[in-house]
Amino acid sequence: MRFTDAHSPANVCTPSRYSLMTGQMRAQHYGAERQESGEAKAERLVREELKKLRWKEADLAARRKGDPGKVRVARRLRQETTMTLAWITQGLQMGVRTHVSNLRGAMP
Fold it and tell me: Which of 20, 69, 71, 103 is 20 to 30 Å apart from 54, CA to CA?
């Protein structure tokens, strides 16, 4: 076996060796922390956008799924975070993720 292109998932050898041998990151190294910080950032962005729109969180349920305000928030979340369409769809109460994907593409 010959390695021609390798990327180390960690800057010390033990986590790197584990990842190369198993194809997985060890649980205590970065994965959960990055996800948690990404989710925290996404929640902060939602709060900022709701404030700009002068909405309360309850307004998300009251507004229609394709509301332009919701679409703008969804677009910002996709551009600035690593959150999935499923997470965004559920958080903004926008229906199914394919609907959100289509709406995001339709906006200028």
Answer: 103
